[in-house]
Write a structure and sequence with these properties.
The protein is an alpha/beta fold. It has helices at about 10-20, 35-45, 60-70, 85-95, 115-120, 135-140, 170-180, 220-230, 240-255, 270-275, 320-325, 330-345, 365-370, and strands at about 5, 30-35, 50-55, 75, 95-100, 120-125, 145-155, 160, 185, 190-195, 200-205, 210-215, 230-240, 260-265, 265-270, 290, 290-305, 305-315, 355, 380-384.
Length: about 375
């Protein structure tokens, strides 16, 4: 018997949930969010009322989280990183394993390693698309080389959403954070920080995407990958529409991306909350997104006396993802790996305790499971 408590039912969480609900390895599933409509609609569509309970919870309410999580075997955190600490503490306190999709800057999650080890449970962090699939691909690509000099992670999407000029296909708050923070770069044994929207270049993604402008972006991979793969250099770049870049820079100059409360006519507001309020919710864009999404990893180094480049990638169309799940490719590619890991846990394939990233999984088994869900992984090896 396995009971899962799943908190956060946005674009990513809804994908994770439907895979897990369909799995016969999971016996009981609790879907919780501060807004329950999407969760209720999913349960009704899957006719899963006997297996799934929908509950309302505020992830900032520690007492409510403890009550919700009591008796769970696994907690899936599909919220934003702001709530990682609350949900992790509640999971460890209740002896529940834990997984999430992003680290954020609010908490060094590895500082909770002892808390989870003492409880005899594990916390798998950053198990989405990127990070997540990218980390597993980096481990696999590195195995093809004797020495790794560079790991380059690239995220490209040529999506079009008719009627919108400023959108995010995952948490708008998280995306704004990532593009405006000083991006992490691993170089010669230490983390350096670049400038937002810097190191612009055209990167040629696999067909049918082709060349897109990419920029350095603050992300988990340059922090996580070098802990487990010996390399001299690692960076992460994301493709951003020039209009998105222009608007974000303007909002930032006006102070509208700030998370600090200000007083407006006697009301306390966070400027960024106002911006994201007027952006469409990622889950509401399902069926409206056209184009393709891709994540790709390059491992560059030596095999014997030859210099090699190993590439691994996955490409998915937003239309195909919608047919599979009722969600766009971004939500599908981030949400599915969490479900794969949850099912691996239910099968006893994950036994790690403490806090650990995707690099600590059996990455070959993890990648080999993805095609079952319509996610194919490509690979090429070339001399350079």
């Amino acid at each position: 018997m396995m009971k899962v408590v799943h908190i956060g039912c946005g674009a990513v969480g809804l994908v994770t949930a439907q895979h897990c609900i369909k799995s016969d390895r999971i016996d009981e599933y609790v879907l919780a969010d501060i807004a329950t409509q999407k969760a209720e609609e999913l349960v009704k569509r899957l006719k899963a009322e006997g297996k799934v309970t929908v509950k309302k919870v505020d992830a900032s309410d520690k007492k409510a989280l403890n009550k919700l999580i009591k008796g769970a075997d696994l907690v899936i955190n599909g919220t934003i990183p702001e709530f990682n600490a609350n949900i992790m503490h509640a999971s460890a306190a209740n002896g529940a394993n834990y997984l999430d999709f992003a680290m954020g800057d609010e908490l060094d999650q590895f500082t909770l390693d002892k808390e989870f080890r003492d409880a005899g449970v594990g916390a798998l962090i950053s198990i989405g698309e990127d990070p997540g699939i990218t980390d597993a691909m980096a481990v696999s690509a590195a195995k093809q080389l004797d020495e790794v000099d560079k790991i380059l992670v690239r995220d490209g999407d040529n999506a079009l959403v008719e009627g919108y000029d400023y959108v995010a296909l995952f948490s708008p708050d998280t995306l704004i954070d990532e593009v405006l923070c000083k991006p992490a770069i691993w170089r010669n044994g230490k983390i350096e920080r670049g400038e937002p929207f810097s190191a612009e270049e055209e990167y040629d993604f696999p067909a049918p995407i082709g060349k897109l402008k990419v920029y350095l972006c603050d992300h988990e991979e340059p922090v996580l990958m070098p802990k487990y793969i010996r390399t001299k250099y690692c960076d992460f770049k994301i493709a951003l529409d020039p209009e998105f870049v222009r608007i974000t820079k303007m909002l930032h100059k006006l102070g509208l991306t700030s998370n600090k409360e200000i007083d407006v006519k006697g009301k306390k507001v966070r400027p960024r909350d106002v911006v994201t309020h007027f952006m469409p919710k990622p889950a509401d864009l399902a069926g409206k997104v056209k184009g393709y999404g891709c994540v790709l990893v390059e491992a560059i180094g030596k095999k014997g006396d030859k210099s090699k480049r190993v590439k691994m990638w996955t490409v998915m169309s937003h239309d195909d993802a919608f047919k599979l799940s009722g969600m766009h490719a971004t939500g599908y590619l981030v949400g599915t790996p969490g479900a794969v890991a949850a099912i691996m846990w239910a099968e006893g394939k994950i036994k790690e305790t403490g806090v650990f990233p995707p690099e600590k999984l059996d990455t070959d088994e993890f990648l080999n499971r993805l095609p079952k869900y319509g996610i194919t992984v490509g690979k090429s090896v070339e001399d350079i």
